[in-house]
Amino acid sequence: MKKNAKTPSESSVEMREMVMPNNTNALNTVFGGTVMSWIDIAAAMVAARHCGKPVVTAHIDDIDFLAPIKVGYHVLIQASMNYVGRTSMIVGVKVTSENPYTGESRGTTRAYLTFVALDDLGRPVEVPGLTPESEDEIRRYENAKIRVEHKKAFKGTQKKK
């Protein structure tokens, strides 16, 4: 176990947005790119809070748009640390839309992002470990570990030029 390990709750982030007309397409639903931007911002805050260093997005994995979000709806973005390697961190993000008039909410987007912590010269630097506590945090950690193993195995099968 790495020293200075942190729990996912120590760095988790919740942020809210409201879908305005300038965020929407011709169908009056939010642009996917806008949601992706919100996801990246929330996940970057989690990664920076976890390691106490500047971070950069290295990979976005498995972003799923499950349902549209209408103009005027409120958006809840929840992000938490799922897994850490030596210099990289995987953050899971869940997006939920809320109808402000009825209170109805539904999951709309989920994604997994990998960040790398950087030193003052922009080089990757080691990050604190992660100590998942709850059953949900442990499940997310184990799933992220499998995701990392699959990604490494897939890279090994790629043909080189």
Number of domains: 1
- Oligomer kind: single chain
Task: Estimate the strand proportion.
Answer: 25-35%
The CATH topology label is: Thiol Ester Dehydrase, Chain A
Question: What are the secondary-structure elements, in order, as H or E?
Answer: EHEEEEH
**Alpha-carbon distance between the two ends:** 38 Å
Radius of gyration: 17 Å
Overall 3D shape: globular
Average predicted confidence as pLDDT: 94
Largest sheet: 5 strands, antiparallel
The helix tally amounts to 2
The CATH class turns out to be: Alpha Beta
The total of beta strands comes to 5
Structural class: alpha+beta
CATH superfamily label: Hotdog Thioesterase
Strand order of the largest sheet: 1-3-4-5-2
Catalogue the unreliable spans: none
Share of helix among residues?
Answer: 25-40%
Record the SSE blueprint:
Blueprint: E1 13-18, H1 32-51, E2 55-65, E3 74-84, E4 88-98, E5 105-117, H2 135-157
Antiparallel strand pairs: 1-3, 2-5, 3-4, 4-5
Word description of this protein:
The chain is α+β, with helices and mostly antiparallel strands and 161 residues long. The chain has a single domain, classed as Thiol Ester Dehydrase, Chain A (Roll), CATH 3.10.129. It contains two helices and five strands, in the order E-H-E-E-E-E-H. It has helices at residues 32-51, 135-157; strands at residues 13-18, 55-65, 74-84, 88-98, 105-117. Strands 1-3-4-5-2 form a five-stranded antiparallel beta sheet. Strand 4 (88-98) and strand 5 form a beta hairpin. The longest helix has 23 residues, at 135-157.
